């Protein structure tokens, strides 16, 4: 493996300045001052030959652990996420290529967002959740080319391997660039959500995803196949 698997702060090191230098190199708007207790994350999804590249940014609590995709000669596996995993608090990127590019996220139905987030939370199998419900959708606009994002409130019951159910509540941000729909979904247990709601909303609101009009091929991981 040649890519970093876990990091305590952000994907490039050096904090906000280095993250903004990476964004500036692609002509993208800089991240503003992060709220106290938060750290910026700017990272690439799709460095492997099996995926189309995306540049992803969001902020997360400074004590959350970041996990990035793995890359080897066969391609890329995994996703971008941050979390306090022992407590069940997470923010995870999901990329859904089934729908292709959706030109106007703001015109999509509640059912569209429900399907997208169900796909995101059920990556380990369709039998891990029940009683999923989207409770609210709010449309927003990003700073770059007026890109549309939908902030989606949702809740569901997680079915654990031990046979009991855990109520979870979350907030997701949904957009579409390149040839896919991107979902950054955040969630925690019902008991912790009241305490964490503001943080989860801050994470979701900070999510930005870029691809259209950018040449990200220079971020590809390459291997010397002659060895």
Description:
- By secondary structure, the protein is of the alpha+beta class.
- 18% of the residues lie in helices and 40% in strands.
- The protein is built from 3 helices and 13 strands.
- It has helices spanning 15-25, 110-121, 190-206, and strands at residues 6-7, 38-45, 54-61, 65-67, 70-72, 75-77, 81-84, 89-96, 129-141, 148-159, 165-177, 180-189, 208-210.
- The strands form 3 sheets. It has an 8-stranded antiparallel sheet, sandwiched between helices.
- A hairpin with a 5-residue loop joins strand 10 (148-159) and strand 11 (165-177).
Number of DSSP E strands: 13
Structural class: alpha+beta
Side-by-side strand order of the widest sheet: 1-4-7-8-12-11-10-9
Number of helices: 3
The average pLDDT value, as a whole number, equals 90
Percent of residues in beta strands? 35-45%
């Amino acid at each position: 493996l040649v890519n970093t698997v876990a990091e305590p702060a952000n994907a490039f090191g050096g904090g906000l300045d280095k993250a903004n230098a990476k964004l500036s190199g692609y002509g993208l708007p800089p991240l503003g001052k992060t709220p106290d207790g938060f750290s910026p994350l700017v990272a690439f999804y799709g460095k492997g030959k099996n995926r189309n590249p995306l540049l992803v940014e969001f902020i997360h609590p400074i004590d959350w652990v970041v996990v990035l995709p793995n890359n080897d000669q066969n391609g890329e596996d995994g996703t971008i996420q941050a979390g306090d995993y022992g407590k069940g608090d997470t923010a995870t990127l999901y990329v859904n290529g089934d729908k292709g590019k959706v030109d106007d996220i703001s015109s999509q139905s509640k059912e569209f967002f429900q399907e997208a987030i169900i796909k995101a939370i059920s990556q380990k199998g369709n039998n891990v959740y029940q009683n999923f419900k989207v409770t609210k959708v709010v449309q927003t606009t990003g700073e770059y080319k007026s890109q549309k994002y939908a902030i989606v409130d949702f809740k569901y019951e997680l079915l654990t391997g031990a046979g009991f159910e855990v109520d979870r509540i979350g907030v997701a941000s949904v957009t579409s660039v390149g040839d896919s729909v991107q979902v950054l979904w955040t969630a925690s247990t019902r008991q912790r959500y009241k305490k964490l709601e503001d943080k989860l909303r801050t994470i979701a609101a900070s999510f930005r995803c870029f691809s259209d009009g950018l040449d990200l091929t220079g971020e590809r991981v390459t291997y010397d196949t002659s060895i």
